[in-house]
Write a structure and sequence with these properties.
The protein is α+β, with helices and mostly antiparallel strands and 132 residues long. Helices cover 14% and strands 15% of the residues. It has one domain. The strands form four sheets. It has a two-stranded parallel sheet with strand order 1-8. Bound molecules: iron/sulfur cluster (2 copies).
Length: 132
Amino acid sequence: MTRPAGSPSEVRGGSPIAQPLGAADGVTDAVEAVDDDSAVDCETCGCCCAFSWEWPTFVGDRDGEGIPEYLTEDGRMRCDGDRCAALFGTVGVEVHCRVYPDRPLVCREFAAGSPACRAVRRHFGLGQGTAR
Ligand code: SF4
Ligand code: SF4
């Protein structure tokens, strides 16, 4: 299967998903794809968690510890289509990560408001904004 054009690994420049989801600090505003100054809100986004059938991938031996096996496969999170199996909710409306405390390293490193974040949000037609 080919990676969809503009998938996270092509746009992230390091890591996709980030502080998405989660109550503490943050995943996935479905509106127009326009540049604006409004803040992006991970809890109403989730784009970076629904952008690739093969992401996120675990990095190192301990990454992924604590995540139930049924949510993983082949050294990465299991995906349903392009969507991480741990993502709960509706992208662009309201979402959260079922494994937030144990989420993979690349998810932790993915920065809201970063160029990669803006790229995936643009892909889903969401505002580009900045992190709040
Ligand atoms: S794409 Fe950006 S705003 Fe959306 S969940 Fe990921 S880091 Fe948060
Ligand atoms: S593990 Fe959580 S933060 Fe990482 S891609 Fe899946 S739903 Fe998003």
